[in-house]
Amino acid sequence: MFDPERKAESLAMDRVRRSLAEAERVVVLTGAGVSVESGVPTFRGEEGLWRSHRPEQLATPAAFARDPRLVWEWYAWRRERVGGCRPNAAHRALARWALSRPGVLIVTQNVDGLHGDAAIEAAGDRAPETAAWPIELHGSLFRVRCTGCGERRPHVAPIDTGSRASLPRCPDCGALLRPDVVWFGEPLEDRTIGRALAAARGCDACLVVGTSAIVHPAASVAVEAAHGGAVLVEVNPDPTPLSPLAGVSLRATAATAVPRLLGGPNEAGPA
Ligand code: NAD
Ligand code: ZN
Questions:
Q1: Closest atom of ligand 1 relative to the 30 alpha carbon
Q2: Mapping DSSP to helix (H, G, I), strand (E, B) and coil, where does residue 160 land?
Q3: Of 69, 110, 127, 134, which residue is the least packed, with the fewest Cβ within 10 Å?
Q4: Cα-to-centroid distance, 170 and ligand 2 (Å)
């Protein structure tokens, strides 16, 4: 039987698919929601609580200065959780899409490394630092930064949080290492956010997936794109402050909607 709602939905989907396919430059902005179907919780639900601490009480320079062991314990727990997660159909579709055509930039607020994992999977023997490699606005759980000399390096080894003395230290200067993530109250790195905003200002389409769009300046990436005349497409089961700016808001989850939007193999592949 003819279902007018389904018909309208499929026409909207066709329209979005076409505008994304035809856009010369596309910025993709993702947030915690893109990783939910990989098993990574957002900060907002019940699961975002850890031993009854709120992230806002742990992800701050003041919390680290007061109790670095507690903060490292939380990060060690998050690393362990995320370490067992794999990219889902949305990360994979985005990585394949970015590799298959020019002009796509993936910008993420996530620190879970799953876009990078998907880029490595999609690139095969090619260097992963290709078009599918994301700009990580808020850093990475799997990198550390020295609180003394500022040196950054990858770090995936288990963290011994048994005592303050066992916390990881800089091999160069001996100071405490901290997670290389942007904490509440800290500025984003100029070069990183600058690159994302410049791309947003010059893009024809902006695909926003799984972000509540309340953390700035990350959300400004989508706002700048819309103000510059780009078509804004949002994938989120719930409305956000960006919804009124979006040409189309798909009320669906990332792993179902993104592969359908971008096409290609395994369109409806498992998460
Ligand atoms: P957020 O928690 O504020 O918002 C998540 C959004 O995702 C919500 O709008 C929600 O409706 C939507 N969502 C939930 N399930 C979804 C699904 N299956 N598909 C699509 N969308 C879905 O996240 P945010 O906007 O990224 O901001 C939170 C901050 O916390 C960020 O700065 C980020 O660095 C950090 N964070 C990162 C991770 C991660 O790395 N995976 C996890 C938690 C928090
Ligand atoms: Zn150092």
A1: 26
A2: coil
A3: 127
A4: 5
Topology of domain 1-40+86-138+188-271, per CATH? Answer: Rossmann fold (3.40.50)
- Kindly give the residue spans of alpha helices, DSSP state H, lying in the chain: 4-22, 55-58, 61-66, 68-83, 89-100, 114-123, 190-201, 220-227, 254-262
Q: What is the pLDDT of residues 215-248, one digit of tens each?
A: 889 999 999 999 999 999 999 999 999 999 998 9
pTM of the model: 0.94
Residues annotated catalytic, as ranges: 138
| Domain boundary assignment for the chain | 1-40+86-138+188-271, 42-84+141-181
Q: How confident is the model at residue 270 (pLDDT cuts 50, 70, 90)?
A: very low
CATH superfamily, domain 42-84+141-181, is SIR2/SIRT2 'Small Domain' (3.30.1600.10)
According to the model, what pLDDT value does residue 43 have? Answer: 86
